[in-house]
Amino acid sequence: MKANKHPVINAHELSIGEPLIEFKNVYKSYGNNKVLNGISFIVKKGENLVILGRSGSGKSVAVKCLVGLSEVDKGEIIISGEDITLLNEEERNRIRMKIGFLFQSGALYDSMTVRQNLAFTLQHNKKNLNEQDIEAAVREVLGNVGLEDAIDKMPSELSGGMRKRIGLARALIIKPEIIIYDEPTGGLDTITAREIIELIRSIKQKYNATSIIITHDLTCAKYTGDRIIILKDGVIRAEGSYKDIENNDDDWVKSFFEK
After folding, report:
1. Are 83 and 74 in contact (CB under 8 A)?
2. What pLDDT does 105 receive?
3. By the 8 A CB rule, do 216 and 181 touch?
4. For residue 143, is it within any domain?
5. What does the alpha-carbon distance between residue 95 and residue 234 come to, in Å, rounded to a whole number?
6. In Å, what is the CA distance from 148 to each residue of 135, 214, 228, 256?
């Protein structure tokens, strides 16, 4: 394995587990726009990794490459020991079944109730479940996000924060090994954002999932991340704990913390 440009190893990180996800020298361009420029990093089993960066830094493209929505130009992306860049679409779908995705918008089906949204996702990923098993699973995840009473509501009846919670419930219902959070606090007021942050922390404890959190929100990064990497122009500019990043001597990294 190639060493990261900014290796940070501490006792807490070592206690989390073996690498579950690994990017090895990954490049991605769209035409003349170089988005990822040879990034290498790992995510350990049970770890919350925050990918921090401003718009256009490459953080969302990294996730698209991870789930196979974009093909890499060069490099390897390894999940559970398999290089997904070498897999066909059927094999990638098998890997995707292990991943729960919280979209920035929540991305619920507007024509379905909360129950139907969650049941549809479960039935798509887990075959041969009876109605009792589906109902139990739906109620369990809604309880874990604190919204069991919303089971028969339509998405249009939900606030932005509630939609995020239901989106997270939908990600959790397949019992994923990996959860990807795309700007989980984006567009939320301060109080609701704090609630989502606490929920992410709670989910980590309940599910012991491995998570990647894409954000430009420093507060979210501080309270949800075991480790943080900061991308700029498709390269890793800094890596470490929140305290490490906050005390980094790089002027550009310091600019993240300027009010």
Report:
1. no
2. 63
3. no
4. yes
5. 25
6. 11, 27, 33, 38
Categorise residue 248: left if φ over 0, alpha if ψ from -120 to 50, beta otherwise.
beta
Full domain range(s) for residue 247: 19-257
CA distance 100 to 134: 17
Mean pLDDT for back-to-back runs of 10 residues, the chain (259 residues): 39 59 96 94 94 87 90 95 92 89 77 93 83 93 92 92 90 91 90 91 88 93 94 93 92 80
* Model pLDDT, residue 259: 60
pTM: 0.86
Tokens for 248, please give them. 């980094």
SS3 181: strand
- 166 neighbors 106 (Cβ within 8 angstroms): yes
- Work out the end-to-end distance of the chain between its first and last CA atoms, rounded to an integer number of angstroms: 38
Q: Is residue 11 included in any domain, yes or no? A: no
pLDDT at position 186: 86
What are the start-end ranges of the E strands in 60-149? 74-79, 82-83, 99-102
Residue 189 lies in a domain: yes
pLDDT of res. 10: 41
Count the domains in the chain.
1
> Which CATH number does the domain housing residue 74 bear?
3.40.50.300
Looking at the DSSP bridge assignments, the partners of residue 52 are 215, 230
Q: What pLDDT is attached to residue 69?
A: 85
What's the CA gap between 211 and 203, in Å, rounded? 10
